[in-house]
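Lab notebook, bench 4. Still working through the backlog of constructs that have no structural model yet. Next entry is a single chain of 72 residues. Request: give me the structure tokens for it.
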Amino acid sequence: MKKEQYLRSNRVVFITMMIIMVYLTVTFIMAVLTGTKTVQVYIQIAASILSIIADIVVYTRMKDTRTGALIM
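Model written out:
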């Protein structure tokens, strides 16, 4: 694939990943706010926030490469 093709496909993957990860994070936060305060929920919140950060870093640094497509 060419650089422009990786850029387009990685953009679509990035947007999709952000929608999914933000939904999961909001869902877990709502679970905590409604009374489910367990260690597992807090671990899931932390993992989803770290995943969002990792996706942003990978996308901004490698959005037009094959490696970036594989990591995302």
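Notes after review: The helical segments are 3-33, 39-62, 66-71. DSSP finds three helices and no strands in the chain. Flag for follow-up if needed.
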